[in-house]
Write a structure and sequence with these properties.
Helices cover about 40% and strands about 15% of the residues. The protein has about 375 residues and is α/β, with parallel strands linked by helices. The structure holds pyridoxal-5'-phosphate. Pyridoxal-5'-phosphate binds next to loops.
């Protein structure tokens, strides 16, 4: 029950074990790859075409920065969490100047504050934003923020790795130029694949570069014409993509009931109500992501003790956090396959026992959760 990697359904594992063709040479694979990318786009109502890259989610973030950044480019890095500021490292690595704009980490990015800043300073080639900053669990309004940035002709890069498929990222009219997702969070496939969509404006900026992109793996241009040329920049991990395709089918089937996002919302709100009823304090004041909940460690207890008892006695893995939140909070992931009432209920029951045993006066969480979700 961590915020990713998440549990993988049997049919996804089986699909990865099926025989496969040669993905470099068999034209049918190009059709399969293209169809899979299109299904991702349709599932999240994306505006721009998707590509599947061979590499864990971080690859998309670095590829966006590598492909857009030229020496001396100014890049606005929006930061109200942990991954937010992390973009600055990629920007600098590729020769850009990262201007980090910090916001209150206990709530979603304040759009008025951003607008005011942009009135004074807006000569940025692009801006980076994290939709759900997983270590703190904050969810930013990507659609609104990107539309504000676009008014100033600033390209936008959004890390939606831990929100995509668990909540709406932004619809088909959104101003997101490069949108990054990954396989191992709410899609519930093993880690190893990056999903990235690229706008024509972003491609135009790459075409207009005076210097070549100083990476091969992180060069998004190498994927642009793969279908017409029947050529991938490197051999595609076909078994991983077979698994991904099965996971997409699982989500498409759920979509029939129209409720992947509603299910995540319901469970997340139930978890928040339960934790509060248990006398615990949530880290955030507002901007709660429906994919992960972040809770302060009660006074006198340590994160390590809580995680260890959850693991050893109850065989349930929850997570601590890192960066500025290390040791201060624990996190329950409820995304993808983990976003089930049965899983979350068992987690809360175990947490109740764990906290009580460790000496904390924990209130009844499970019945509050049950009442809310039923
Ligand atoms: C998981 C995640 C990534 C991918 O990085 P990991 O190596 O899996 O930690 C990127 N961005 C966010 C916001 C994530 O939650």
């Amino acid at each position: 029950m961590t915020p990713g990697p998440t549990q993988i359904r049997e049919n996804v594992l089986s699909a990865r074990a099926l025989p496969a063709t040669n993905p470099d040479l068999d034209y049918e694979f190009f059709d399969f790859y293209k169809a899979t990318c299109e299904r991702i786009g349709k599932l999240i109502n994306a505006k721009h075409p998707f590509y599947i890259l061979s590499g864990e989610g971080i690859l998309g973030l670095e590829a966006a920065c590598a492909s857009l950044t030229e020496y001396g480019d100014r890049v606005l890095v929006l930061d109200n969490g942990e991954y937010g500021g992390g973009f600055a490292d990629f920007v600098k690595m590729y020769g850009g100047e990262a201007v980090v704009l910090k916001f209150d980490p206990t709530k979603e990015i304040d759009c008025d504050e951003l607008s005011t800043f942009l009135e004074r300073d807006n000569t940025f080639k692009y801006a980076t934003l994290v939709h759900c900053d997983t270590p703190s669990g904050v969810l930013n309004d990507a659609e609104r923020i990107c539309s504000i940035l676009k008014k100033h002709q600033i390209l936008t890069v959004v890390d939606a790795v831990s929100s995509m498929f668990g909540t709406e990222v932004a619809g088909d009219t959104s101003d997101i130029d490069i949108l990054c997702g990954a396989s191992q969070k709410a899609l519930s496939t093993p880690p190893g694949l990056t999903l990235v969509s690229v706008s024509t404006d972003a491609y135009a900026a790459m075409d207009a570069r005076k210097t070549p992109i100083s990476s091969y793996y992180c060069n998004l241009l190498t994927f642009r014409d793969y279908y017409e040329k029947k050529l991938f920049p490197y051999t595609m991990p076909i078994h991983d993509i077979q698994g991904l395709s099965a996971a997409i089918t699982n989500l498409e089937d759920k979509r029939g009931d129209g409720d992947i996002y509603t299910q995540h919302e319901l469970i997340a709100e139930g978890v928040r109500k339960a934790l509060v009823a248990g006398n615990l304090s949530l880290f955030l004041e507002s901007g709660f992501s429906p994919t992960v909940t972040v809770c302060k460690i009660p006074q006198g207890l340590t994160c390590e003790d809580i995680l260890r008892r959850m693991n050893d006695t109850h065989k349930i893995m929850i997570a601590g956090s890192f960066g500025f939140l290390e040791g201060k909070v624990f996190r329950i992931g409820h995304m993808g396959e983990n976003a089930s009432i049965v899983n979350v209920r068992a987690t809360l029951l175990a947490l109740e026992e764990t906290l009580t045993t460790l000496g904390f006066a924990c209130g009844d969480m499970v019945s509050v959760f049950d009442d809310f979700v039923h």
